[in-house]
Amino acid sequence: MSCGSDHCITCGDDGTPMSIVAVDPERGLALCEDGEGARHTVETALVEPVAPGQGLLVHAGTAIARFDAEVLA
Amino acid sequence: MKFVDEFRDPELGRAAALEILSLVEPGRHYKFMEVCGGHTHSIYKYGVDDLLPANVELVHGPGCPVCVIPMGRVDDGIALAHEPGVIFTCFGDMLRVPGSSGSLLEAKAAGADVRMVYSPLDALRIAKQNPDRQVVFFAIGFETTAPSTALTLKRARAENVANFSCMCSHVTIVPPLRALLESPDLRLDGFIGPGHVSTVVGARPFEFIPSDYGKPVVISGFEPLDILQSVAMILRQLRAGQCRVENQYRRVVPYEGNLRALEVMSEVFELRPHFEWRGLGFISHSGLRLSNAYAELDAEQRFSVPGVRVADPKACQCGEVLKGVIKPWECKVFGTACTPERPIGTCMVSSEGACAAYYNFGRFAREREVV
Amino acid sequence: MSTPSASPVTQREERILGIIETARGKRAKFRDSQINMAHGAGGKATQTLIEGLFVPAFGGTALEEMGDAGAVVAAGTELAMTTDSYVVKPLRFPGGSIGELAVNGTVNDLAVSGARPLALTVSMILEEGLDAGTLKAEVEAIAEATRRAEVTIVAGDTKVVERGHADGMFICTTGVGLRDPRARLSPTALQPGDRILLSGSIGEHGTAIMLARNEFELDAEIESDTRSLWPAVDALLDAAGPHLRCLRDATRGGVASVLNELARSSNVAMLVNEHSVPVRPAVAGAAEILGIDPMYVANEGKLVAFVAPENVAPALEALRDSPGGEQAAEIGEVRAEPPGLVLVNTSFGGRRVMDQLVGDPLPRIC
Questions:
Q1: What is the pLDDT, as a whole number, of residue C2?
Q2: Fewest Cβ atoms nearer than 10 Å: which of B279, B366, C24, C157?
């Protein structure tokens, strides 16, 4: 989207770091939260198994990677 | 915010900028391409190029999947959007990309039901909410986005959402890079590799760049500090006379990529023999379509899509601008026939494209060089 | 700088830059074949429509000024007049509703043009089938907002259109205000050295609406900031009257659009310090996920004030003491070069251009 503001987050290959609040294993979804409290339902099939508290990289509503908490780069 | 704040710290940024300054050889001009549109955006948003020495130039690469979609493909999408009963869904930026006669935004104004979504799952949800309508998702993007589309298609099939289909225009990152590198007049010293594509494909697919073409690649994160660190890593390789693939973005990019994502993609998609890129022409094995197993969800099979082919205007020199051979203002149509309001090539279509940026901010950039 | 061998290229670049500048300086021409959503988004397309079609056709000096409200002189009394339509969807959203917005929005256009809001007319376009309870709630919201803004409704109109021809209801309000003698405001009055003040945290209204539409599986606690800005303007005029150059409410297109518009009309540059722009964390978080910059997001109760440097402190204090202004801040200053451009010192330490909004895929928000 527009971004300025005519910048589209999906096409710009943006990823948002989010952490898992709750997991819905039945539907393969997780409720995630970014650092400032905004929440989003996220598809987790590509990064399972997942657990609350974990850091995910979310793109277009899908988690494409898990943050490795051990690596600081 | 964890994983973010420390990479936006201005103190660390200044330190990285100083390190870069210590690594450049005075008198040498460096040209690095950031392949990914996401990097271009971060560079713009945080003013990263303003922190680089004047002899380090960043060239925006072909990694904006919106702007590389050729006009004919946009025309096909518009034709589909006008089919009776169709709800046409796509990502926001795609709405403004001009086809040969107008954009999807204009198609919407003309009565087509075009809706913006943030994720393919949103499109699937619209399909479930409108069972009496045909919902088409216009899928674009590199390997970062393709798994999300693939999962959505799997879900659509598992949940029997019969009124959902996908017009697949997904592209792959390696073929256009190879095409750029094949060009004899290429003037690039190294590549800032696409971090989020790499979370999916891993670092291995980029090994041909150092091995076949002798250019360093550093896979980079998207925060401003990530980009500065990556520039420093490339400079260090150049100084040491090395050339290899390095991973600056280890916190999310495993060297092997995301195997599950690759598996889902290979189940749902197959390579097209060739795909056309705006400004770059046809590139072999650079686009994805739905595999036979998913043919029933393929909008191009469900509807009759005209399959329009619109040649890029001859005068457009986006290819040369991308390769760093010419500057935007050296293009024959720049600023006259090609403007941000009426763009011709990919570099003018995206507000972050090299030509649009120069058109809008050229005076500012020149002032900086003087200072 | 220039060497003989480089001069042909330099000349060519110079010529191209000249062509661009001429093109940008020209009044926009309206050449589109039809109206699309971008024409209503407050960015470049809106400007093209206004400058290229409306102003040339309607003329008049009040319109030429392109303020938020036009001046009318009646029997020696200076009045300000403005009108606005409200088509927000959904009708109710956290922090407000269409009725409240219809009053505050028009009141604010008067206030920032330096006029004390006096009276409104309200015209409603209702969709066949609209729930009576919904209508009653909006009528009550309008009444309550007029009480708070201390304006009276002096005339109204009602039309009903067939089902499907309006999203529940559209409201159009027209406002009349009395020019305040303390005010000397003009969009062409900005001078290098002037300071830019912002009356509070930004991006709340637009983000609240986007979230209330439930189109994205995204959730955050954000309320619209809709409120009357007259108390803030009144306090500013008291504190800095003749040193106030211009005021604008940062609605569609956000603070970025206000700055760009005024940089053009006063032919000055602006330099904004990103880290001094107040943004609530919830808004910053949602904006990050949606890929938007809060500087471009609509507000319905925030103003941008341009003040001569000698009166910054009292002006800022006045803003902070007015309702909703606790977070008011000085966010930057007016510069001479490069004219027409808005520059930002990013919080990361770089500098970039903050351009006008080109398109707008965002949903209807006001």
A1: 36
A2: C157
Q: How far is A46 from chain C (nearest CA, A)?
A: 19
Burial of C76 (0-12, 13-18, 19+ CB in 10 A): exposed
Share of chain B above pLDDT 90, in %: 58
| List of residues 6+ apart from B162 with CB closer than 8 A | none
Taking only residues 212 to 241 of chain B, the set having a beta carbon closer than 8 angstroms to any beta carbon of chain A reads 222, 229
Would the CB atoms of A1 and C362 count as touching at under 8 Å? yes
CB-based burial label for C85 (10 Å; 0-12, 13-18, 19+):
middle
pLDDT tens digits, one per residue of B181-222? 988 888 889 999 999 999 999 999 999 999 999 999 999 999
For B277, other C-beta atoms within 10 Å of its C-beta total: 27
Selection from A10-14, A67-71, B146-150, C88-92 with the highest mean pLDDT:
B146-150
- Smallest Cβ–Cβ distance between A61 and the set B64, B118, B197 belongs to B118
| CB B327, CB B45: distance < 8 Å | no
In whole angstroms, give the CA distance from residue B72 to residue B80.
12
Instruction: Closest CB to B252: pick one of A3, A48, A65.
Output: A65
**Cβ contact B47–C34 (<8 Å):** no
Q: What is the chain C residue with the closest CA to A3? A: C292
Q: Report the residue from C256, C284, C291 with minimal CB separation from A36.
A: C284
Q: How many residue pairs from chains A and B have C-beta atoms closer than 8 A?
A: 150
Question: Nearest CB to C16: which of B225, B335, B340?
Answer: B335
Structure-block tokens of residue C100: 């409240």
Render pLDDT for B50-96 as a digit per residue (tens, 0 to 9): 899 999 988 887 767 777 888 899 999 999 999 999 999 998 778 87
Residue A2 pLDDT exceeds 50: no
Chain B residues within an 8 Å CB radius of A11: 37, 64-66, 91, 93-94, 140-141, 145
Measured between beta carbons, the chain A residues lying within 8 angstroms of B92 are: 1-2, 8, 10
CB < 8 Å to C36, chain B: 105-106, 108-109
- DSSP secondary structure, A27-38, as one string: TTEEEEE-TTS-
Question: How many other C-beta atoms can be found within 10 angstroms of the C-beta atom of residue C217?
Answer: 17
| Distance between CA atoms of residues B68 and B276, nearest Å | 8
Count of other CB atoms within 10 angstroms of residue B127: 24
Q: Give the Cα separation of B227 and B234 in Å (integer).
A: 11
Chain B residues touching residue C13 (CB < 8 angstroms): 327, 329
How far is residue A23's CA from residue A34's CA, in Å, rounded to a whole number? 15
| Residue B279 to residue B338: CA distance in whole angstroms | 13
Report the alpha-carbon distance of residue B360 to residue C51 in Å, rounded. 20
Question: Per the structure block, which two tokens stand in for C117?
Answer: 């809001």
CB atoms within 10 A of CB B20: 21
Chain A residues closer than 8 Å to B250 by CB? 68, 71, 73
Model-level pTM?
Answer: 0.82
Is B128 strand, coil or helix?
Answer: helix
Q: A6 falls in which pLDDT band (50, 70, 90)?
A: very low
Residue B153 token pair: 């298609």
The confidence score (pLDDT) of residue B266 equals 96
Q: For residue A26, report the phi and psi dihedrals to the nearest 5 degrees.
A: -55, -50
Instruction: Say whether C293 and A3 touch across the interface (CB within 8 A).
Output: yes
User: Are the Cβ atoms of B264 and A62 closer than 8 angstroms?
Assistant: no
Q: What ipTM score was computed for the predicted complex, to two decimals?
A: 0.78
pLDDT along chain C (366 residues), means of 10: 44 80 76 83 81 86 74 87 93 95 96 96 96 96 96 95 93 96 91 97 93 76 94 95 93 92 93 96 86 89 96 96 94 92 92 76 46
pLDDT of res. B363 = 66
